[in-house]
């Protein structure tokens, strides 16, 4: 499909720079393409209990954001040191990370980068790495001198929360972001971007959902920095997705299959949990235990196998995520929904408001 079909104009003031307080007071646009003339309705996130039923199952991504934005100095024999930044996006081994580097063109294989500007970040030593591989679009593979938990400790000491570029361009990261840019149920460290639909949940909202008999299940997909990369191709067939690591355990798969068998609905919180569940589902809709790297690219025409509803934030124009929600609820429906959201003051992107989408029959 043509990528420009997924374009729209977003006023700058619609980009949220902080989350709603409290989190579940954020607005919620309910989009039901199967509901005749009442496709769109305006609510708050805390109204979710009005749209879910006993026996439904919500699927959350429990990945935890790490301070994956690193600043350092590149060293090369016969050349002066140069300031560089690297955003880690996928772990390749206990001592290796794939990263997006700036300025990428000036970095070569064999360069040594000292992060933290020489500060002794832990008792185990400084955080140094060698550029082992170089790919396209500024992607590199870093082999660190540290490994495993020691490397994790050093990254936590010198790294910064990698705010999305549309927020970072407007204000610097601060201490508040360490809490704001994390779900309350984050557990498995490894993401460099938050599963932002989950940022709306609070203990009181969980209690309300428990009270009406909605199940809560967790999967893990470590969101990579590739989620922020624009689609530069003119046609979707020419776009290359970046892979992300995730897993669905056997017990969770069995519970979700039981939900479907008794007539309950699977409600994914965020496009990350949806992409993982759809990666784990067979053509008959049965969800199996699954682990590995997924690069699933969902565009209109995709046949959803397992997911019935999707809770998600408002996404960037021409993005793979806007393509995904258009596949889920219909392109014309989502274009109308985004026009309504812009005209009525919804807040967009990571810290913005949310939507609840019903899958188009």
UniProtKB/TrEMBL annotation:
The family this protein is said to belong to: Belongs to the QueA family.
Originating organism: Rhizobium calliandrae
UniProt signal peptide: none
Pathway where this protein functions: tRNA modification; tRNA-queuosine biosynthesis
SUPFAM superfamilies listed in its UniProt record: QueA-like (SSF111337)
Catalytic activity: 7-aminomethyl-7-carbaguanosine(34) in tRNA + S-adenosyl-L-methionine = epoxyqueuosine(34) in tRNA + adenine + L-methionine + 2 H(+)
Job of this protein: Transfers and isomerizes the ribose moiety from AdoMet to the 7-aminomethyl group of 7-deazaguanine (preQ1-tRNA) to give epoxyqueuosine (oQ-tRNA).
Coiled coil: none
Enzyme class: transferase
Main localization (coarse): cytoplasm
Locations listed in the record: Cytoplasm
EC numbers, comma separated: 2.4.99.17
Superkingdom of this protein's organism: Bacteria
Name of this chain's protein: S-adenosylmethionine:tRNA ribosyltransferase-isomerase
Key words of the record: Cytoplasm, Glycosyltransferase, Queuosine biosynthesis, S-adenosyl-L-methionine, Transferase
GO molecular function, one term: S-adenosylmethionine:tRNA ribosyltransferase-isomerase activity
Pfam families given in the database record: Queuosine_synth
Binding partners and assembly: Monomer.
């Amino acid at each position: 499909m043509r990528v420009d079909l997924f374009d729209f104009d977003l006023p700058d003031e619609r980009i949220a720079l902080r989350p709603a307080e409290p989190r579940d007071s954020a607005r919620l646009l309910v989009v039901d393409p199967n509901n005749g003339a009442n496709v769109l309705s305006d609510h708050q996130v805390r109204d979710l209990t009005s749209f879910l039923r006993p026996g439904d199952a919500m699927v959350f991504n429990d990945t935890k954001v790490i301070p994956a934005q690193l600043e350092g100095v590149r060293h090369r024999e016969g050349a002066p040191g140069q300031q560089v930044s690297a955003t880690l996006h996928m772990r390749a081994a206990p001592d290796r990370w794939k990263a997006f580097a700036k300025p990428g063109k000036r970095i070569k294989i064999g360069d040594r980068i000292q992060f933290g500007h020489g500060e002794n970040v832990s008792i185990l030593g400084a955080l140094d790495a060698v550029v082992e591989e170089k790919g396209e679009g500024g992607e590199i593979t870093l082999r660190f001198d540290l490994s495993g938990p020691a490397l994790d400790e050093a990254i936590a000491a010198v790294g910064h929360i990698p705010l999305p570029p549309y927020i970072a361009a407007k204000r610097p990261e601060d201490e508040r972001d360490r809490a704001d840019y994390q779900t309350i149920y984050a557990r498995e460290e490894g993401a460099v971007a938050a599963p932002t639909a989950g940022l709306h949940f609070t203990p009181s909202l969980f209690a309300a959902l428990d009270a009406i008999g909605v199940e809560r299940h967790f999967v893990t997909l470590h969101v990579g920095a590739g989620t922020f990369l624009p689609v530069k191709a003119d046609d979707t067939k020419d776009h290359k997705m970046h892979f992300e690591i995730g897993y669905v355990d056997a017990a969770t798969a069995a519970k979700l299959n039981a939900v479907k068998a008794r007539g309950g609905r699977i409600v994914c919180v965020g496009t990350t949990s949806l992409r993982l569940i759809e990666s784990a589902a067979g053509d008959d809709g049965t969800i199996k235990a699954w682990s590995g790297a997924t690069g699933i690219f969902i565009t209109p025409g995709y046949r959803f196998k397992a997911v019935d509803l999707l809770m998600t934030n408002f996404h960037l124009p021409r993005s793979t995520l806007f393509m995904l929600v258009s596949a889920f609820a219909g392109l014309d429906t989502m274009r109308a929904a985004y026009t309504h959201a812009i005209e009525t003051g919804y807040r967009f992107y990571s810290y913005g408001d949310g939507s609840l989408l019903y899958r188009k029959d």
